[in-house]
Amino acid sequence: MASVNAAISCARAAANLPTENSKGSQAVVIDNTVYLSGVLGLDPSTNKLVDGNTVAQAKQAFINMKNILEAANSSYDNVVKATVLLADINDFAEVNKIYKQYFKEPYPARTAYQVAKLPLDAKIEIEAIAVVGEIVDHSS
């Protein structure tokens, strides 16, 4: 049976992550899969959203996501699915530029859509599913 508790503790223990505002986990690992909760553009030193527009919040959210993935022994290279929630879908093109700085081809499966409201009035929230360990390419 897979253990969930160790992974939750691992993700919370990383010093470079914002303190969780809710009772939820930042990430949960089951077997070789890590499930990231929605990641906001929170500054880890203040636990508040970074000042600025969607681009500023997106940059910080991607930094936070990197740190959560690393705390769960994974990385951007191992993300297989991402979901981008935007307060304004018109920001998608700018967010996509930042997205491509972190994800390389072949890109993970992705869904992006506009929502009515995000926690803390954030402008962006990102969820992801990643593999822990090495991904073997069987395409050749």
Automatic annotation (TrEMBL):
Coiled coil: none annotated. Gene3D superfamilies: RutC-like. Pfam families: Ribonuc_L-PSP. GO terms for molecular function: deaminase activity. GO terms for cellular component: cytosol; mitochondrion. It comes from the Eukaryota. NCBIfam families: Rid family detoxifying hydrolase (TIGR00004). Belongs to the RutC family. PANTHER family: 2-IMINOBUTANOATE/2-IMINOPROPANOATE DEAMINASE RIDA (PTHR11803), 2-IMINOBUTANOATE_2-IMINOPROPANOATE DEAMINASE (PTHR11803:SF39). This is Ribonuclease UK114. It comes from Cryptotermes secundus. The gene is HRSP12.
